[in-house]
Amino acid sequence: MYHPAETRYDTMPYRRCGRSGLRLPAISLGLWHNFGSDTPHDLKRELCQAAFDNGITHFDLANNYGPPPGSAEEAFGEILKTEFAGFRDELIISSKAGYLMWPGPYGEFGSRKYLIASCDQSLKRMGLDYVDIFYSHRFDPETPLEETMGALDYIVRSGRALYVGISSYNSERTREAVAILNDLGTPCVIHQPSYNLLNRWVERDGLLETLEDLGIGSIAFTPLAQGMLTSKYLGGIPEGSRASQGKSLNKKLLSDEMVSRLQALNVIAEARGQTLAQMALAWVLRGERATTALIGASKVSQIEDCVGAVGKLDFTADELAAIDATAPDEKLVNLWARSSEEV
Question: Helical H runs in the chain?
């Protein structure tokens, strides 16, 4: 039987999510990859246990995570019934809906029918009465924003979720969505944008300033650029890596020039006494502009390495300047540009 580490809350910082009462760990675990049917269940269990043992209380899912879609939620539901039985109130569990989940006209985007049906399906797969956070996973240009936000409001009022958030909305759409939710009486507490050293669209768009102005927290996904900002690709593309498997990371991004830049960033990280992954996470979390960084993992050692980032979150002006001179803002890294209307 699993017994979580008694020291799990000793070193992890927990940051307030905007102006809400919710606090999130500086590092959160996402189940986008490595929680589908292509991964042994024992490894999924080990990853979740290692995360919780190290103070990660937030587990982020979506309806379509797998493969196949839905299987990540099913696997996590099994972990909730076994390893995490009795610890539900120590966890923040989120899910999302927006991308293609089932065939036909009602299986994606932001209609009231799709969002509510998807939330019900997610709860059933995980064996939960409610999720802590439910997101609109992407902006829907063809559905009135009032309908999408109205569905989120209903999901909270009906007890299906405690909080709501949005993902990959740009500043303009964020302000519009937040105004609607505020009028409905269900505030948006969190935004989930992609953000890392190589993908800085939130800076060009002014989203970070918008969120601060509105009092909304943020959870930066792909803070490690799908593994590019780790030691994994410093020597090229290894077998078995995400890039080698032709999954969501395009191997064309890992050109000789990019690998040279990653190696230079690694030198900066080593001078700080950190791994490249730790420095990349610290950079996203610097100054508390992001509430939490959302990592993925295929090994327990990766979680342990990432958690080590919280030991040094400050940067000197020279370090930041060196990083800016080395890290290109690579727009091709942002696979979600269409949702943010290609800022």
Answer: 41-53, 71-81, 112-126, 145-157, 171-184, 201-205, 207-214, 256-271, 276-285, 300-307, 317-326
